[in-house]
Amino acid sequence: MDEALLTIFVEFYNKSDRAQNGWKPHVYTAAVKNVRDKCGVDITKDNIISRSKTFDKHYSIIIKMLVTSGFGWDWTRNRISVDSDAVWDDYINVKKNQDAACYRYKVVKFWDSISLVYCKDHATGEFARTPSENAKEMDAEDLSNKDPSSNTSISSDVGDDRRKRHRMNDHDIAFLRDKLYSFVATLKDDSSQDPKIVPPEEVFATLKAIPDLDGDDDAFLDAFDFLISDGPKFNALLALPMGLRKKWLLKHINK
Fold this sequence. Notes:
Largest sheet: 2 strands, antiparallel
Radius of gyration: 21 Å
Mean pLDDT: 75
Low-confidence stretches: 123-166, 190-195
Helix content: 55-70%
Oligomer: single chain
Number of helices: 12
Distance between the termini: 41 Å
Structural class: mainly alpha
Shape: globular
């Protein structure tokens, strides 16, 4: 049933046939019909929404791991691959990552479709925090990292200077990334803007879904640079079956 659902989602995703908070009505109708025809099962719009939330949860948890060093995707077993138990333990011991605990050996089929369809839904996800929220968190981190034995008579000027030199943490990077994505998405929706602009996160997720490309950093980055500023080429890539995408990309970036 998942394959029948996701086939419809990918088809209408490629047509940009989505509403602000979900799919347009005719997409649900097409999904119900496809599941009935392919699986002999009658489902409702509520069933589709419920399953879609599950796909969205898979995406939000898995993509956080895939952008972390030491993680990859096993296309043969349809699950996360991890370089070592130590990498997994370090990741899962962070409180914000504990919802991924059950994904160590969890099979998630059709990741290529899920990562394509659901990547655009996360521009306002858990990392899209407000600047004030990030500032408060950085201040708290700065205080917690101070050595209690240090000289407390440091001047206020030095203290102010230290507060200005915060390191960017994961939240800050994700916040800036999502703001950039939202800005580019706004430009994309404006017909007066350059139609060649492609949201960077959408390109990233699409490339991560291509088997064997993820392991070749140079080819991955070349493909990212090639697609991010060429909307027609990106749309051409999406129109190809998954088995031809890597060959097509390498043909173009090696010209």
